[in-house]
Design goal:
It comes from Streptomyces olivaceiscleroticus. By secondary structure, the chain is mainly beta. The protein is built from 3 helices and 12 strands.
């Protein structure tokens, strides 16, 4: 489980095509400190398993399904990535509960700079708008953010200078894809309410 508080802006060192998967080597001296084979690290919001670590770098295998359902397939050597280690038991929950399981990819639609922050509009893929609410939480490329405006096919977020400086959201351009993970609580509530509705209509219990 993660919190959406990015620890480090890392870099893709190499991408190896394995046919039905890709092996990424990424530079991240902060997140690799103490990391070992089998540990988890979130890369742009996608939970990946560490294969090996060496000299501040780590490798991770990414299956075809993950490449298809996230923006990791667009990464190449030199790409910057948001990195976060799992939350330690008893640690502070600085953002919100993030699983590292991407629900879909959105697209940067607009960027509107302000004096002290920047408003970014993100186009939503089909099926996710119902989970996005004004003042609710959403994870964009692994960054825990608060929704400013929730539309039928988009949402907006307000980015402070720290987020712009220390995450990939400061360098993403209009048209670039971003990984989205909606609040897992919304999905559980939908599932429970759906089941309750079926039961009240005489469905099996």
């Amino acid at each position: 489980m993660f919190t959406g508080i990015v620890e480090e802006l890392g870099e893709v060192v190499a991408v190896e095509d394995l046919g039905d998967a890709s092996r990424f080597r990424l530079r991240g001296p902060v997140v690799t400190e103490g990391a070992k084979h089998g540990d988890s690290i979130a890369v742009n919001g996608v939970c990946l398993t560490v294969v090996e670590t060496e000299h501040g770098e780590f490798t991770a295998d990414v299956m075809a399904e993950t490449l298809k359902r996230s923006s990791l397939g667009a990464l190449e050597k030199g790409s910057r990535v948001n990195l976060e280690r799992p939350m330690a038991l008893g640690g502070r929950l600085g953002g919100h509960l993030v699983q590292g399981h991407v629900d879909g990819t959105g697209t940067i639609a607009e960027r509107t700079p302000g004096e002290h922050w920047e408003i970014v509009k993100v186009a939503l893929p089909d099926g996710l708008a119902r989970y996005v609410v004004e003042k609710g939480s959403i994870t964009v490329d692994g960054v825990s953010l608060t929704v400013v405006e929730a539309g039928d096919d988009y949402f907006t977020i307000s980015l402070i200078p720290t987020t712009l400086d220390l995450t990939t959201l400061g360098i993403k351009q209009v048209g670039d894809p971003v990984n989205l993970e909606v609040d897992v609580l919304a999905k559980y509530v939908e599932r429970l309410l759906g089941k309750a509705g079926k039961d009240s209509d005489g469905g099996a219990r």
